[in-house]
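can u do me a favor
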């Protein structure tokens, strides 16, 4: 695992496994495996590896996902697995995400693995 690097104010990335493929670019359709956790205690709230779940696909860098996830993903490449940690304002903000047990302004950590870029 690499030392954490600051992606932007409030967003930090630690590379778990280096990728060897193409870099994620703005507007690319990216498919990831993901596990989301509250940073405090690393309590899991969602994972694409959970029963009934599948890999998650979105357009990178255009606001389809929370800001910290977008910013972190834009620094990744195909095959890379990284841990992206973000402050609450780069996650779900003051509203939180009650359906998943995410309180307002909660810091979040996601383990993301880029499995496809189109």
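np, heres the sequence
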């Amino acid at each position: 695992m690499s030392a954490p690097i600051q992606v932007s104010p409030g967003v930090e990335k630690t590379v778990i496994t280096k990728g060897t493929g193409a870099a994620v670019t703005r507007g690319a359709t990216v498919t990831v495996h993901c596990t989301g956790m509250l940073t405090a205690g690393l309590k899991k709230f969602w994972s694409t590896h959970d029963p009934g779940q599948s890999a998650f696909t979105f357009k990178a860098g255009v606001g389809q996902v929370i800001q910290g996830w977008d910013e972190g993903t834009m620094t990744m490449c195909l095959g890379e697995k990284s841990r992206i940690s973000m402050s609450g304002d780069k996650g779900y903000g003051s509203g939180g995400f009650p359906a998943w047990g995410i309180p307002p302004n909660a810091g979040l950590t996601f383990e993301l693995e880029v499995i496809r870029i189109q």
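The first strand starts at residue 5 and ends at 8. hope that helps!!
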